[in-house]
Specification:
The protein is 75% helix and 0% strand. It is an all-alpha fold. The protein has one domain. Helix 4 runs parallel beside helix 7 and helix 8 packs across helix 9. The longest helix is centred in the middle third of the chain and has 28 residues.
């Protein structure tokens, strides 16, 4: 799977929507695991190790040599560190500010990716991308009810300092993820996608284990529901992250990345169905705006 031949646009968009839905399902499963005793360090370490084992099995089955040049390995480790930083920053933001605001700030990563690529002299975002991505963010703000129109905010409002730090963490996570996406297409496009993902997941696992060790504890699920959720999030994350990094060089990162904004919309509806979280009319309107932005992004000339 070393070919970087572009996929048809409709197929690439469909696959990205499926990947986004898988990531959303992973978040719902993670919430169930947290509600039943697991903690963040445990979930990240287990899901990343599960993804690494899943990809390793694919490599062994296909007879792909587990070899990289020293330069490629160093680059893959660097990208893996960026993915680990993205996870730590996003969770740090969620710990300080409302989850909706953290996700909204993080979903600026397609804009950052376009700017990074453009500044580096690479692919320039299309006009449609420049228009569609801000529209998608506005839709996300409504769908996630950042302004609290649909319901009063839960809990006590964050202090201004905590809010600023939380937003900074979320934006830092977005920058790290955008950089990882860009460097993957620039440095590792000719590397087997499964081997690429194996190295990334091993790095994230090592960072998660170190984080848990420094924090002083790993917490495991307390019942069968928690264990089932932990297993589910591992399977969902493994399949989604593998598909993302295997297909990325064939999709074109800049003009397609905003399609991943569908993830929180999928999570919104899955949370309604599975976690009994209510969806207001204004949130449905926001979801339709995001979907409309995705349609706009994926029509017309490439």
């Amino acid at each position: 799977m070393t070919s970087a031949t572009p996929l048809p646009r409709w197929l690439g968009v469909s696959l990205l929507l499926l990947i986004a839905a898988s990531f959303a399902s992973n978040h719902v499963a993670a919430r169930l695991a947290f509600d039943h005793g697991a903690n963040v360090a445990t979930a990240v370490a287990v899901r990343s190790m599960g993804a690494a084992l899943f990809v390793l099995a694919l490599l062994v089955r296909a007879g792909v040599p587990l070899r990289m040049s020293a330069t490629t390995l160093r680059r893959a480790i660097g990208i893996g560190l960026l993915v680990a930083i993205q996870s730590l920053c996003l969770y740090s933001a969620v710990a300080r500010i409302p989850v909706a605001l953290a996700l909204l700030a993080f979903n600026t990563f397609p804009l950052m990716l376009g700017l990074i690529s453009w500044a580096a002299g690479g692919e320039r975002p299309s006009r449609r991308a420049f228009v569609a991505m801000p529209i998608a963010l506005v839709g996300l703000a409504l769908a996630l009810d950042v302004a609290g129109f649909a319901r009063p905010p839960a809990g006590v409002a964050a202090e201004p300092t905590s809010m600023g730090v939380g937003v900074a963490f979320a934006l830092g996570g977005a920058a790290a993820f955008a950089s990882a996406l860009y460097l993957t297409t620039r440095w590792l496009a000719s590397t087997d996608g499964r081997l690429r993902t194996l190295v990334l997941m091993l790095v994230v696992t090592a960072v998660a284990i170190a984080s848990g060790a420094l924090g002083g504890r790993f917490e495991w699920p307390a019942d069968g529901i928690g264990w089932a959720a932990l297993a589910g999030l591992t399977v969902l994350y493994s399949s989604a992250i593998t598909a993302l990094f295997v297909l990325l060089p064939r999709l074109g990162a800049v003009n397609n990345a905003a399609v991943m904004n569908f993830e929180p919309i999928a999570a919104l509806f899955l949370g309604w169905v599975i976690l009994d979280q209510q969806v207001a009319v204004i949130q449905i309107a926001g979801a339709l705006i995001v979907i409309g932005a995705i349609v706009m992004l994926t029509t017309g000339q490439r």
